[in-house]
Every structure is written in structure tokens, then in C-alpha cells.
Write a structure and sequence with these properties.
With 330 residues, the protein is of the alpha/beta class. It contains 15 helices and five strands. A five-stranded parallel beta sheet has the order 2-3-4-1-5, sandwiched between helices.
């Protein structure tokens, strides 16, 4: 099934098949939670299907579709990090190159999905460039990336681009309500999840299912307690280092951004955390704008450090101590 906010992109991809002008390489970009992988999979399935449906999607019943469903299709290759948090290595790329020297086993195309493409290290990237410079017969390379700026220009320039943007909030909320079979009474909770997910539908769905909003609220309460001198930065950092670091770092950054916005009297809808508006407004009145900007700079630097082997507890301690001191100066 094609997701509602993918319809325009799907028509574009269908055009490639209808015109029999399949690109050598396709780069799909966009933020996390927009369904880039699902879109790539639907395109791959349609391209390999022996009897596509009227809307261009795969039939789900032919031999190719059955093999794809069983994850045993010889012409559907997926390249990704071997371990979570790791990169795509040159060894994996060399193995792919060797495999691509052989012709596709079926009469249709062969599809390779590289996700996330920006996780290839320098050596792997240089080796992969060979795939683009010397394309093999009936082979489509689909690169997926949340951070395309990390890809070399030599790779980007050889790909057709397909940027996927977040749909408008009402579209996301309607889709969530139908997917979760919610009634109107829960729409405010859905709106909070959408705001927390920065408008990314699938991320908002995950948040609704795993109660991420509850965890965010618990962390915010600890953040407020720290500002009121009721908790220690070291104790909170010890608790937080057990949590997923990336979402937590985003939450802290969004709180600081909202605090800065509060100095300019924004509408509630323009906040990252509209449901926390009252507390954010109260805290902003006790803080200096200059100090918040310094904390914001520290958070940006800290978010970049997450990709390194840094001790997360020490990272959180530095941020929380800065927040603690910022409030003590008032």
C-alpha cells in the first residue's frame, strides 16, 4: 500500500516504469519517519513484479513477489550496516561489486537498496563509486539517506533525486487516527505526538505505540526539577544514560529552542512542545537569553558527538550542569 503522503512520489516513480526509463541510481532523502524505506521497497517490488496492478504496485502473488516476501529474491539486494550503530564497510561494498558482475537471474531488473547510504565509510564510498561509474546490466541502485550532505558530491551527482518532505499536520493526524482507530477525544494526544516527531508520520506512530510521549514528559519533569534545585545533575545524567540518546538530545534541544522562542511571545502552535507551553513560559521569565543561546550551542555540539565513542553519562552531565548553573544565576 502506498502511504498517503507518498502518492505524488509514487506517480513519479511509476513514470519511470511506464516510460521504461529506469534510472541507474536513485537517491531518496528526507527526515526520519517519513517512510523512505517503504517507498523504495514498493518501487523495487513493482519493478520486479511480473504482473503489476493498475496503480502500478506489485501484485503480491507472482513468483517474484513470493520470493521478495520470503526475502529470498536473488535480484533484490539490501545493503545496510551489519550491526546497529555501525557503518557500511568496504568489505560489504566489495562483496556487492562482485555480486553485480553477474547478470540478473530474472528477466526484469535487479534492485539494490543501500540504507542508510551516508553510513558508508570513506573507503566504502570510494569503492561504491565504481558501481556508479561502471553500471551493470538492468541494475537499479537506490540510496536512502536522512543526511545526504554526508555523501560525496561525486555520488550525489550520479543519482536521480527524490526528496520526501513531511506532510501537513492535519494529514498526519487524520492518518494516525485511522491507523490507530482513535476517536476525536484522543486527537490532542495525537497532535502532541506529531509535534514531538516533527511532523514525521511513522515516527509519530511509533511514539503513540510505545508511549514515548510519557517518557518525554518524565524527562521534562526531571529537567524542571533540576532548574528548581530539587535534583542533582549527576543523578539525572546517570538515569538518562540508560535511555536512547538521540531522542533525548532532540528533546532537550527542543526545550531550549522553545524557551528562546518564549522571549518573542510566539503562538503556541509555533512551539516544538505546545503541550508544555505554560511551564516553558514560566521558566523563560527567569532566564537570560544569552545563557540559553550558549546552552543551545552546547547541545548542537553534543548532538554531533553522539556519533563518536563518547561517554554518554559524561555528555549528559555537562549539559545538565550547564542548565543547572544557568538557573542558579537567576
Amino acid at each position: 500500500m502506498i502511504l498517503p503522503w507518498h502518492r505524488q512520489h509514487w506517480e513519479h516513480l511509476r513514470g519511470y516504469i511506464a516510460q521504461q526509463r529506469i534510472p541507474q541510481a536513485l537517491l531518496i532523502t528526507g527526515n526520519k519517519g517519513l517512510g523512505k524505506r517503504q517507498l523504495a521497497n514498493r518501487f523495487a517490488e513493482a519493478l520486479l513484479c511480473a504482473a503489476p496492478q493498475n496503480d502500478g504496485t506489485a501484485c503480491g502473488h507472482c513468483n517474484s513477489c513470493v520470493l521478495i516476501s520470503a526475502e529470498t529474491h536473488p535480484d533484490f539486494i539490501q545493503l545496510q550496516p551489519e550491526e546497529p550503530g555501525k557503518g557500511i564497510t568496504i568489505g560489504q561494498v566489495r562483496a556487492l561489486i562482485t555480486r553485480l558482475t553477474l547478470k540478473p537471474q530474472f528477466e526484469s531488473h535487479r534492485v539494490v537498496i543501500i540504507n542508510p547510504a551516508d553510513k558508508m565509510n570513506n573507503a566504502a564510498t570510494n569503492a561504491f563509486l565504481k558501481c556508479l561509474e561502471e553500471p551493470t546490466e538492468r541494475t537499479l541502485l537506490i540510496l536512502i539517506s536522512e543526511k545526504p550532505a554526508r555523501l560525496p558530491a561525486t555520488i550525489i551527482s550520479r543519482c536521480q533525486k527524490l526528496p520526501v518532505a513531511a506532510p501537513d499536520k492535519e494529514t498526519v493526524i487524520d492518518w494516525l487516527a485511522k491507523t490507530l482507530q482513535c476517536n476525536a477525544d484522543t486527537h490532542q494526544t495525537l497532535r502532541n505526538n506529531v509535534a514531538l516527531a516533527q511532523g514525521a508520520p511513522l515516527l509519530a506512530l511509533d511514539y503513540a505505540n510505545d508511549e514515548t510521549l510519557t517518557l518525554r514528559n518524565e524527562c521534562f519533569n526531571a529537567w524542571v526539577a533540576l532548574a528548581k534545585r530539587l535534583k542533582s545533575p549527576v543523578v539525572i545524567a546517570e538515569d538518562w544514560q540508560k535511555l536512547p540518546a538521540s531522542p533525548l538530545m532532540f528533546w532537550m534541544t527542543s526545550w531550549v529552542i522553545d524557551l528562546i522562542k518564549c522571549f518573542y511571545h510566539p503562538t503556541v502552535a509555533n512551539l516544538y512542545n505546545p503541550d508544555l507551553n505554560k511551564q516553558l513560559q514560566e521558566m523563560s521569565q527567569q532566564l537570560e537569553l544569552k545563557g540559553l543561546y550558549k546552552l543551545y550551542d552546547l547541545l548542537l555540539i553534543s548532538r554531533q558527538r553522539l556519533d563518536t565513542q563518547i561517554n554518554k553519562q559524561l555528555l549528559f552531565e555537562e549539559i545538565l550542569i550547564h542548565w543547572y548553573e544557568l538557573n542558579r544565576s537567576q
